[in-house]
Each structure stands twice: as structure tokens, then as C-alpha cells.
Amino acid sequence: MALLADPPVPPVDDSSRGRPVRRALKYVVAIGSVCAVATIGVVVGLNRVTGGGPVTERCTAELDGSDWYLSPAQADNAALVAGTSVARGLPARAATIGLATALQESKLINIDYGDRDSVGLFQQRPSQGWGTVQEILDPVYSTNAFYDVLVEVEGYEDMAVTDAAQTVQRSAFPDAYAQHEMRSRAWASALTGNSPGALSCELAPVADGDQTAPAAARDVVAGRLGRDLGLAPATGAADPNRQDPASSTVTVDATPLTPDDPERGAWATGQWAVATAQVTQAVEVHVADRVWLREEAAWVEAETRLDPGEVRITADASE
């Protein structure tokens, strides 16, 4: 499997002749740093005044008082990897292992290159029987292919994350997965519904030119729900929003994900919706008595409490 190495660090010249130059450079760097901080402060200040989006778009999963960040693109893929484990009825440990593996192999980006013939989220190789290049580059296929092998590993739930990942991947760097364990645990806990309200994204507002009609906006959300979680939106009387052609809200019953704990299924679905919000253009996600607002980048108290297992996802749409 591919290991994406950081670029080499250039050598440092320690000769005495370079000291005056280095001293001068220190002053230049110091002045530049002050200017950079001042510039960022102005940008952030203007951003708050004008109500624009965040300077840096990012998503966060919190666990045990620590925040673990991913880019929106990484978060979108994390939602698929963890969501697939939930849809398959696997334990949260499987999601942690899957996320740690994809973080190490591809940095959670569906790349079309790698070591030798490795491609995709998990850097699977066609020559090793993982499928065709086209199949592996389908993240749904590659994620399920990974879990198909993982579930055959006896006792994987009790193994160290790096050992379980290595058993599946057979990498030349068997211990490399361990460095991603804490980040993966945080994201797995949120995306499997075990840590309610622990996942949020700071995203720019949906641009006017990217908005679609309400029906089309609902279809995007519904399509991803089906792809990642195997869920379908409610229909008929169970979804009053569908009776309103101007509504871009999708109501879904997440109970099938976790029949014995509908609330956990709802939080898994709700936080999946936040993690995929850049793609689906979600602006509001309602679970239980909490609602995530894109403009606030936070979960806040909702005016009403939804039934156990119910989730409502509202996408931005043109009027």
C-alpha cells in the first residue's frame, strides 16, 4: 500500500559566514509574521462584520476535550467510511480501523495514483485482487471491499488498530496506522452516533450560483443518504415537507440503522449530514432537541424535539 511521504527538509548551512545573513533573515521573518497576523486579524474582523464564511473551511470532531480536524473533502469521505460501517451493523471499532487506514493510505482523499498500481481511498491494488481500477476508484466499492476483508479477521475488535489495519492491508509500513488512531476514534465516535453533538463544520455560505430548486436539493440529500447509509427519505404523511414544493427539507427515519437504539441512529445520521454538508449544501440539521446551523457552525437548542430516530436535513435552495 502507498505511503504518502512528506517532502524532504532541505539541509541547513551552519557555517559562520552565514550568521549575519541569518540574523537579518530573523528580523525579516519576525516583521513578516507580525504583518501576517495583522492581516489575518483584519480578514477575520471584516469577515465577522460582513457576515461572510470562515477564513478556513474545516470540520471538527471532539472527543475527551480534544478537537480533531479534517478538511470538508476528508470529512465527506469519513462520513462514507463510518456510515458504511453503521449501515452494515458493524461496531464503532470497525469505523475507527477503516478511518485510520484511509487516513494513512490516502489522507482520506480518493486519489487515482499511488505506489505501483495502488489507487483509491484505501490504496487497493488491482494486481492483488481488490478489483479493477474503475471499481476501486468508486469509494463505495472500495470501502465495502475493505470491510469485507476486515470482518473475516478473527478478533479484530480486540486488536490494536494498527494490527487490524495491517492484517487487511499488508503494508510495507505496518505500524504507520497507529498515528491516526486518536483522530479516527473521535470521528468514528461521532459518525456512529456514540458522541452526540460532537461533530461540526465551519463552511462558507452556499453561493447563489450553486443553489438549485428545492426538489433538486432534496434529491441530492436523498441520493447521498441512500449511497452512504442505505436510508430513504420518509414519504407521504411521514414527511410533511414533501407536500410543500418550496421546501428543501428531507425527513428521514434512521431507526433501521440501530433498531435497539433509535437515538444513536439519529445522531449517526445527523452528524453524517453535517460532515457531508459541503457537497449536499445542507444548512440545517435537526436531531432530537438540537439543530446544527451552518451559519453558526454549531449545534444549538431547537424549538421543538423530534421523535426518536427522526432527522431533518435542510439544504440551501433557490426561491
TrEMBL record:
Q: Which residues cross the membrane?
A: 27-46
What UniProt keywords are attached to this protein's entry?
Membrane, Transmembrane, Transmembrane helix
> Highest taxon of the source?
Bacteria
Region Disordered: start and end of each range?
231-265
Return the protein name.
Answer: Heavy metal transporter
The organism named in the record is Promicromonospora aerolata
User: What taxonomic ancestry is recorded?
Assistant: Bacteria, Bacillati, Actinomycetota, Actinomycetes, Micrococcales
